[in-house]
Amino acid sequence: MLMLNIFMIIMMISNIMMLLSIIISKKTYSDREKCSPFECGFDPKSSARIPFSLHFFLITVIFLIFDVEIALIFPIIPLFKMVNFFFWTKISFFFILILLIGLYHEWNQNMLNWTN
């Protein structure tokens, strides 16, 4: 019975706090543009079926891939002091070789050309 009373008190306090926040809130009117989701560069009132250039998507994916790979290169630098130089050189060369093969593949597929 005590748990039920505590639960009821907690529920009443939380409901009172929500009601007070709604009453005290500064937002008194609802603007259509403020309530709509924001998409950078797109008019939120137009049709959602506007053709989207796939090239923007590809550039974004390429950026994310190389950004993550650069973040993976940073731990290699302090590793230079802890491991054998030959082992460090082999790992660094292998990692940069993978980056260069990916860059060559993207260049070969004309993904880096902005205009075709």
TrEMBL record:
Role, per record: Core subunit of the mitochondrial membrane respiratory chain NADH dehydrogenase (Complex I) which catalyzes electron transfer from NADH through the respiratory chain, using ubiquinone as an electron acceptor. Essential for the catalytic activity of complex I.
Protein's UniProt keywords contain Phosphoprotein: no
Reactions catalysed, as given in the entry: a ubiquinone + NADH + 5 H(+)(in) = a ubiquinol + NAD(+) + 4 H(+)(out)
Keywords: Electron transport, Membrane, Mitochondrion, NAD, Respiratory chain, Translocase, Transmembrane, Transmembrane helix, Transport, Ubiquinone
Localization per Swiss-Prot or TrEMBL: Membrane; Mitochondrion membrane
Membrane topology, record value: Multi-pass membrane protein
Enzyme Commission number(s) from the entry: 7.1.1.2
Alphabetized InterPro entries for the sequence: NADH_UbQ/plastoQ_OxRdtase_su3, NDAH_ubi_oxred_su3_sf
Enzyme class: translocase
Pfam families: Oxidored_q4
Family listed: Belongs to the complex I subunit 3 family.
Regions that span the bilayer: 6-24, 54-79, 85-104
Cellular component aspect of the GO annotation: mitochondrial membrane; NADH dehydrogenase complex
Protein name, entry field: NADH-ubiquinone oxidoreductase chain 3
GO-annotated molecular function: NADH dehydrogenase (ubiquinone) activity
